[in-house]
Amino acid sequence: MGEFDLIRRYFQRLPGHGVEVGVGDDCAVLVPTPGSRWLVSSDMLVEGRHFLSTVDPARLGHKALAVNLSDLAACGATPRGFTLALALPRVDEAWLAGFARGLWSLADASGCPLIGGDTTQGPLNICITVFGEAPSGQALLRSGARAGDEVWVSGRLGDARLALEVFRGTVALDGADFESVRVAMESPTPRVALGQALRGVATAAVDLSDGLLGDLGHILAASGVGARLDVDALPRSAVLAAQPAALQQQCLLAGGDDYELVFTAPPGALVPDVDVALTRIGRIEAEPGLRVVDALGAAVAHGLRGYDHFAS
Ligand code: ADP
Ligand code: MG
Questions:
Q1: What is the DSSP string of 163-219?
Q2: Which candidate, 6, 22, 140, places its Cα nearest to that of 78?
Q3: Whose CA is nearest to atom 4 of ligand 1?
Q4: Angle formed at CA 208 by CA 302 and CA 262, multiple of 5 degrees
Q5: pLDDT in tens, 121-143
């Protein structure tokens, strides 16, 4: 199978709503919604760094798009389309069929069609760029948090990191417990509906890819504020809650790969009714820095920080 057969077979479909030209020409042609702004984001997944070679290809296809949709969600954008740049070591049709199935299933569920890309031979590498829209002036940014705002998080934190520790051999989990945290790691749910519902409600937002401390830190830095964070309030699964306290803290505060949204909103703001639990986890303060406390307000020493690919 050649490059162009491969593209036609797995990655080409008829253009849909709002796409004048999709896969097959030199560029895709998108129809902008009047009064909207484009929001664009890219995320790359590298074998061995972001995923294990043994991962189910359907889950990998899902995750490659999910981590990109999560960035659109953080900004309150409505997904409009995505491109896929793919390097493949060889043509493995079983792998491609699984990958495309996971990818298309999330694309269809999110109303986000594949509109183009690039395919080349090389070490397995997946780079997606998503295009979304938001009404002019309504995109959620990291820079809008103000002293007195409450800090909220969606869903539950830390399961993906717990699964990683199982793969690393530092934690033992079996059966359904392992599968539940493994799904969190391999098949995260981007909070696209929540992000759109937060337009006009949240003052700032970010999605959690590199761990709560680091990602909330981005809001604090961009907004020129600090925060108090209640570690006991952080939402966690029963599986994580059964682990030793220090491991729970590590997974919750510095875990990474959660793809939940953290956002700030004034007290009493009408936090939307969406299909995911929302938990209040802290408060924005004028004093810079992030103060981690327990339920009694006592300082918690943790020595943790967010993930950084090039940190020494
Ligand atoms: P060009 O050489 O003009 O850049 P290509 O030959 O690389 O175009 O690609 C042909 C068409 O297939 C283009 O419309 C491109 O967007 C699309 N395409 C290539 N790879 C992919 C892919 N992995 N997923 C979706 N579309 C793809
Ligand atoms: Mg061309």
A1: HHHHHHTSS---HHHHHHHHHHHHS----HHHHHHTTTT-SEEEE-SS-HHHHHHHH
A2: 140
A3: 26
A4: 90
A5: 999 999 999 999 999 999 999 99
Residue to substitute in 23, 30, 84, 121 for testing ligand 1 pocket (most ligand atoms within 8 angstroms of CB): 23
28 Cα to the center of ligand 2, angstroms? 11
CB 25 less than 6 A from any atom of ligand 1:
yes
**259 Cβ below 6 A of ligand 1:** no
Instruction: Residue 129: name the closest of 67, 43, 12 by CA.
Output: 43
Q: What are the tens digits of pLDDT across the range 51-61?
A: 988 999 999 99
pTM for the whole thing? 0.95
> How far is C-alpha 261 from the geometric centre of its chain's CA atoms?
8
Q: Which two tokens stand for residue 55?
A: 């991962």
